[in-house]
């Protein structure tokens, strides 16, 4: 008996039907395994919430970054202001060199009296009165023979020698003062300098465009005085 041969068309139709049946079965399985419609809505809502939370966190991060940058800038500004205040206080305390227009005074003992008598020699009180005259005339900084005059400066006699800032100074005495040159010179010439000349002391006053004052080189220690706390 001869085998029955199927027509070519029938074979093609059978293959197509088999393919469609396979696809239908696969789709049916996916539909069975797919989450229900409510679950899809829930997942979609959670996704939206998570997206919103992420956006909020990103905005908060940006805000915090901006605040940190502002704080860093503010810290630098505060640090610069503090350093400037420290430098200003050191300047007014005489702890740094200073310069500016002013006058230079050269004061010496009367000629011929140095070896014969000390009665008319320059004494500590003469320098003290001269410095007071300069301060009253508006001097903003003073030095005597390289010694910066501050609120802690002492001027006293040690035997026949004058001591300033624990250092012995010798004539001729060079006094440098920063301030208005015309005002300082006029005040001195019409005041204590005229008295010195009457006593035969040698004294000159010259105006200077730039006077350089050395820094106070002594250690500053406070053992008893303390700043008053604000009430």
From TrEMBL:
The keyword Coiled coil applies. The keyword Coiled coil applies. Pfam families: DUF881. Keywords: Coiled coil, Membrane, Transmembrane, Transmembrane helix. It comes from the Bacteria. Residues 40-67 form a coiled coil. InterPro entries: DUF881 (IPR010273). The chain crosses the membrane at residues 6-23. Belongs to the UPF0749 family. PANTHER family: UPF0749 PROTEIN RV1825 (PTHR37313), UPF0749 PROTEIN YLXX (PTHR37313:SF2). This is DUF881 domain-containing protein.
């Amino acid at each position: 008996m001869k085998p029955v041969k199927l027509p070519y068309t029938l074979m093609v139709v059978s293959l197509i039907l088999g393919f469609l049946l396979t696809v239908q079965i696969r789709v049916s399985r996916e539909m069975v395994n797919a989450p229900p419609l409510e679950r899809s809505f829930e997942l979609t809502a959670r996704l939206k919430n998570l997206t919103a939370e992420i956006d909020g966190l990103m905005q908060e991060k940006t805000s915090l970054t901006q605040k940190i940058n502002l704080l860093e800038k503010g810290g630098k500004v505060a640090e610069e202001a503090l350093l400037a205040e420290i430098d200003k206080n050191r300047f007014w305390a005489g702890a740094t060199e200073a310069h500016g227009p002013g006058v230079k005074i050269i004061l010496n003992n009367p000629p011929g009296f140095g070896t014969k008598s000390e009665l008319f020699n320059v004494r500590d009180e003469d320098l003290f009165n001269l410095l007071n005259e300069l301060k009253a005339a508006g001097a903003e900084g003073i030095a005597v023979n390289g010694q910066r005059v501050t609120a802690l400066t002492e001027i006293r006699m040690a035997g026949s020698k004058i001591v300033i800032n624990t250092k012995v100074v010798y004539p001729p005495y060079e006094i440098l003062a920063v301030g208005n040159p015309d005002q300082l010179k006029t005040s001195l010439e019409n005041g204590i300098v005229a008295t010195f000349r009457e006593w035969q002391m040698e004294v000159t006053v010259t105006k200077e465009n730039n006077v350089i004052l050395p820094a106070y080189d002594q250690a500053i220690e406070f053992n008893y005085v303390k700043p008053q706390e604000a009430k």
